[in-house]
């Protein structure tokens, strides 16, 4: 199996092997849906708020041909944040693919004048 270019970083979080394996397992399906992904960065962040409970933020950045896809998700559990992030990234990739197919299939009528001037 091909090893894909996935960069995992942590902010205020010590990355364990279990976390890295969970991220790699989840993002594999993104590479199944889209083979033109150049690089995928996942940033896991722990944010401790005084007024609210602790929250874990997962940020994903997909470098792809065209405009990059950037998504951020927050929840009270790190693994839940990873799941939600991958779901959102997957929806974005599928939507992008679907829109590209729709744009290819839509043809537009061009009005060409009857008399075209000759170039001299």
Q: What is the element layout, followed by pairings?
A:
Layout: E1 6-11, H1 17-33, E2 37-47, E3 55-64, E4 69-75, H2 78-105
Parallel strand pairs: 1-2
Antiparallel strand pairs: 2-3, 3-4
Helix pairs in contact: 1-2
Shape estimate: elongated
CATH hierarchy class name: Alpha Beta
Domain count: 1
Structural class: alpha+beta
CATH architecture term: 2-Layer Sandwich
Point out poorly predicted stretches: none
Question: Which descriptors would you attach to this protein?
Answer:
alpha+beta; four-stranded mixed β-sheet; elongated; 120 residues; Double Stranded RNA Binding Domain; 4 strands
Q: Can you describe this structure?
A:
The model has no long low-confidence stretch (mean pLDDT 84). The chain has a four-stranded mixed β-sheet, with helices on one face. It has helices at 17-33, 78-105; strands at residues 6-11, 37-47, 55-64, 69-75. It has a single domain (6-103), classed as Ribosome hibernation promotion factor-like (Double Stranded RNA Binding Domain, 2-Layer Sandwich), CATH 3.30.160.100. With 120 residues, it is α+β, with helices and mostly antiparallel strands. The chain is elongated, with a radius of gyration of 21 Å. It is 38% helix and 28% strand. Strand 3 and strand 4 form a beta hairpin. It contains two helices and four strands, in the order E-H-E-E-E-H.
